[in-house]
Amino acid sequence: MIGKPLVVLGSVNADHILQVKELPRPGETVTGHGYRVVPGGKGANQAVAAVRLGARTAFIACVGEDDFGRRMKDAFQAKGMDTRGIMVEEGMPTGMAMIFVAENGENCIGISPEANACLTPERLAPHLGLIRGASALLMQMETPMETVIMAAEEAKKAGVPVALNPAPARSLPEELLKNLAIITPNETEAAALTGIAIQDAASAMEAAACLHGMGVATVIITLGAKGAFVSAKGRGAVVPGFHVTPVDTTAAGDTFNGALMAALQRGDQLPEAIAFSHAAAALSVMRMGAQTSIPTRKEAEDFLRAQR
Q: Which coenzyme or cofactor does it need (predicted)?
């Protein structure tokens, strides 16, 4: 792969996964099976997705001074990722997530940032050159807000388009939103950002218009199995997804984002990039785990051809 890299800035987690019949209600204890620990974290998931789906990728993150963190950095490098921006935090464990996966594929997740919280503006500063030389910057919200703001400002000043997957859901300051080229919330995240409940295409258009008013050029509201509402250049429409039987939805959104940036990096127009992203996400929900579920570029392209 040649050209400038996509730079992903974000989290690295050890995902502790337990399969259960139904997600537990408050105060309820459930018996599960299939417990395992697998690589995760929204930043790592999206970086791995971008690489696997064809993008030249560099990753900026913090991992703990533990075996999991060391193995993750080695694994990223083995995948062909530029790992110069991955820092090992002395005396800290790698971030972790506790994930329940129900039989219908739905999940609930609790996270502890640990080393991810160490990705401060001071730790980012030596790696700003990597961002300034990127084809695009992709971020999420599992690292400190001030770092995300700093990275977006530096990228915008350098003419590097910034994409934000605003997950987990929270309100965002104007100083961040004004520097974004693309935002990719799901329905819950779009509602948290705009105060508008996403119930249909009309409400999605209203939320997108609100985000455009905050300075974001392209708004992509992911709608799960229904596809995505895409709004850019004064036009908005639902781009349908693909109906599959889900096994585990854990990394579907991350796969979509990595695929989107990989497709845009190679020059696909937005409609084609969205279709490719839907295909990759559909394949991911038919497999267990986070990074273990992400398909290759060939698998996504083959699936897309078969569907068409």
A: Mg(2+)
